Amino acid sequence: MDLPPSSFFMFKRFFVAALVLSPMAGAEPPPEFPVLAEFGGNYWVETNQPLPADTQFKVAFDVGDGAEPGKLNYNIHSLARFLNMHVRHGVARDNIQLALVVHGKATKDLLTNAHYQQEFGTDNGSEALIQALLNNNTQVYVCGQSANHYGVTQDKLIDGVQISLSAMTQHALLQQQGYTLNPF
């Protein structure tokens, strides 16, 4: 049985459209950014352990590995993901307290763009993220031992970054204040 030419072309168009659209039919929706609009995209998860509405988080993150020059430090980016993910899943923004403790080579990721450019000849790929975290009540600490080792002084740091005696000291203090240490 032969199809008229117009039927063949309609079938061909339908077939091509089905091939093109079928991968999108089962695709996950794009990530969302409920608090930090430019960082921390995450996916909705139907979990077996829903978070109670009154969940409280006090979480410290430890970052020692620096980013490649000019690139975003994805270890620091984890804080943005944590914040956006939990707000998206029902935790009140005011119930989330985050602290970032930076040491080692990651110390340089806390430099102002001007000082970073002097050091690396390119923009600080993490500066906007650090600013966004600071603007959303994240406490950012740099290890004083690492800062001294790398010649980083307070005037070279992004406004709001605090110098601690050491990363070890800051983690001990945060733990006494009820912060847990996120291993990721």
Topology, element by element:
Elements: H1 5-25, E1 57-63, H2 74-88, E2 96-102, H3 113-120, H4 127-135, E3 139-143, H5 144-149, E4 162-164, H6 167-176, E5 180-182
Parallel strand pairs: 1-2, 1-5, 2-3, 3-4
pLDDT < 50 runs, ≥5 residues: 7-26
Q: What strand order characterises the main sheet?
A: 4-3-2-1-5
Percentage of residues assigned to helices: 25-40%
Query: Roughly what is the average pLDDT, rounded to an integer?
Result: 88
Q: What gyration radius follows from the Cα positions, in whole Å?
A: 23 Å
Largest beta-sheet details = 5 strands, parallel
The total of helices stands at: 6
Strand tally: 5
Strand content: 5-15%
Global shape: globular
Descriptive keywords:
38% helix; Sulphur_relay_DsrE/F-like; DsrEFH-like; alpha/beta; signal; 5 strands; 5-stranded parallel sheet; Hypothetical Protein Ychn, Chain: A; 184 residues
Protein described:
Keywords: Signal. Pfam families: DsrE (PF02635). InterPro entries: DsrEFH-like, Sulphur_relay_DsrE/F-like. Helices cover 38% and strands 14% of the residues. It is an alpha/beta fold and 184 residues long. It has a domain at 57-182: DsrEFH-like (Hypothetical Protein Ychn, Chain: A). The chain has a 5-stranded parallel sheet with strand order 4-3-2-1-5, sandwiched between helices. Helix 2 (74-88) links the parallel strand 1 and strand 2 (96-102). The chain is globular, with a radius of gyration of 23 Å.
